[in-house]
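ok trying again, last paste got cut off:
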Amino acid sequence: AVVSTQSTGMTVPYQRIHYPYVQAAPAQFYTPVVPPPVVIRDQDIDTIKDMFPDVDKEVIRTVLESKRGNVEGAVADLLQMTGDQAAPPTLPSQPTPPAP
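nice, full thing came through this time. structure:
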């Protein structure tokens, strides 16, 4: 964009304000954060398997790993996964007549 000056009649290019570029610290000055490994207990898998007998144990293990061992979170995800597979309620073929 071009801005005109009223006093001189000259035009000067618009100058953007540049903020100083902040550089990140070099890699040798920080340690990447690595989460500790997740320990999935067989007892947790068996407990969830009792709740969801149709779900394979490897699927349960994978969901538990994605939830970092949180059983409640895994159960909530499995409920969502298996809830979509439920059959929709069937409506009666003919409406029932109203009671007199």
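cool. Residues 71-83 form the longest helix (13 residues). The longest strand covers residues 2-4.
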